[in-house]
Amino acid sequence: MERLLYSRALRWWTILRIALEERMVYRGDFALGTLMRFLPIITQIFLWWTIFETIGAEQETEHPEIEGFSFHDMVAYYLLTMLSRAFSSMPGLASGIALQIRNGEIKKFIIQPVDLVGFLLLNRIAHKIAYYSVAFGPFLIVFTLCWWGGYFDSVSLPWTTWMAFLASLIMGFLIGFFLETAIGMIGFWFLEVSSLLFVYMLLSFFLSGHMFPLTMLPDNEIIGRLSYRTIVDMLPLKYLAYFPAAICLETVKGDDLIRGLWIEAGWLVFFMVMCRAMYAAGLRRYSGYGG
Amino acid sequence: MSVIEIEALEKSYRVYQKKEGLWASVRGLFHREYRDVRAVRGIDLQVEAGEFVAFLGPNGAGKTTTLKLLSGVINPTSGKARVLGFVPWNRDNDYRRRFALVMGQKNQLWWDLPAQESFRLHQQIYRIETKQFQDTLDELTDLLAVRDLLGQPVRELSLGERMKMELCAALLHSPEVLFLDEPTIGLDVVAQHNIQRFLRYYQEERKTTILLTSHYMKDIAALCKRVVIMADGEIKYDDSLAGIVDRFSSHKIVTVLLNDGTQAEKLRDYGEVLSVEAPRVRLRIERERISATLSLILDRFLLDDVAVEDPPLEDVIADFFTQVSNKGSDDASDPFPTEVQA
Lengths: 291, 342
Fold this sequence. Notes:
The complex is a heterodimer of chains A (about 290) and B (about 350).
Chain A: H1 2-23, H2 27-36, H3 39-59, H4 71-88, H5 93-103, H6 107-111, H7 116-148, H8 159-185, H9 187-190, H10 194-207, E1 221-223, E2 226-227, H11 228-234, H12 242-248, H13 255-285
Antiparallel strand pairs in A: 1-2
Helix pairs in contact in A: 1-7, 2-7, 3-4, 4-7, 4-8, 4-12, 5-8, 8-12, 8-13
Chain B: E1 4-17, H1 22-30, E2 33-47, E3 52-56, H2 63-70, E4 78-83, H3 93-96, E5 99-103, H4 115-125, H5 130-143, H6 159-171, E6 177-181, H7 189-206, E7 209-213, H8 217-223, E8 226-231, E9 234-240, H9 241-248, E10 251-258, E11 272-277, E12 280-286, H10 290-300, E13 303-309, H11 313-325
Parallel strand pairs in B: 3-7, 3-8, 5-6, 6-7
Antiparallel strand pairs in B: 1-2, 1-4, 8-9, 10-12, 10-13, 11-12
């Protein structure tokens, strides 16, 4: 038993190590790509600043608010969703899987005694580790500056909330992974998934809370007793950005927090099962394209 | 018990039929016509342990589909197959650890990393003991003369070197059954020859059961005693390599060296002239008429030399392919009667 565990751990470590090495091959592109992802932070912060300035001028107040969010809250929220997205975004995952299905490279996972989903997960963890190790510096600088600037003054959390925040980040990573893997596997049926992926990205940008806090959504009832806010609240996309940030800002707390984490875990299991089922069904209809 | 047992194995694909033109494309958005392509039509085959079997056939004959079925890449439409006692498309890990598939046109190695890294990964995936891994790797890299290239990123290797690395990767776990799908495609003559020599040596040493598809007759002639010819998804021939010529070639090639080169044209009455390089003439003569025709020639011409040969294997097989593929169509006759030099 111990031996089995050891050999399994060794196998995972080898996959992880090789995937990490691969990430480091194109170091210039990688470093630039990672750093460039920080540019939008600055533009976004300026955008909110301008919006709040204008509102402040109109309402003739020093501390304008939008739906209970001050400028500082908004910046803190935005930075935290950036952090969540650093966990839950999966650049190139779904399109990569679809491409491998179309050009036949997926065959190697079918003939070798290795599990495709497990392999991709380790590969993605390696991606993330490589990304964090480069992004850590800029993230630290941005967060420290904002800390000094008093943007996080409202954040003083007990360690249990920190743990909940961490758990939500990790589950967010896994939900993002299994969700995008499942989208990639649609390639077994349609071969080309880029338009579908575009729609997903667009929806996820708004409905995950990356663009603005989900509590800003209108609360008036549109279908039966459902409002935009309650509908979006039922979707799994909010766990990709909004939910971890809301934990950290204590917008969600107490019983709501516990319930939120359970629902998140439920979604995670749902996407894991869906991913497996799609892979199994996809393999049955796969015709081994490309020679 | 045979290592590979195939019974009435069948695979059909549903293929979208698109007619030419933009309007047809637009119509295709709403209504699609599909056609069933029967890539493999109920074949039966048995391969014993240690056999080296060649699969021959024109493009689209069903060879690669058969290999994909046997390696579990695709599921069959109907029929049975067992390899080493396993049903391939159940994709049992115990089965996957005991065979390998090498595709000449596909890469299994990590493109941006040295082959060494991919091999390490294989060691882990196939659970190979470190000592055994090192010994096998040493042996393979020596035999294929690629030891010095282990540390070089795969993308920087030549096609031939990469193919050798692919073979190494596939053989690290000492598979009992090996499927090779055109392993020498696109390689130069030297590289082809090296890989042939390696495969022959390896197979003789290890008695691995190998199924090979190739378009290069030299590969087949060098390696396989048994040949399976497929066309239109069916097995048309399954016997020895030597038997192909006896069975399918209706002609012999006669080369005569005339004492008087000016008479070359007169030989046209005795058979189909393939080439005239006076005083040397090559003729294609029907098998059953060979002795009668030869004695007539010897009677009427003064010859310095004469040779009777079987036509090259390529031609025999090409003829055979043309016959089976054009069955019932109008242009069954060969538009180029001149032989293709091997």
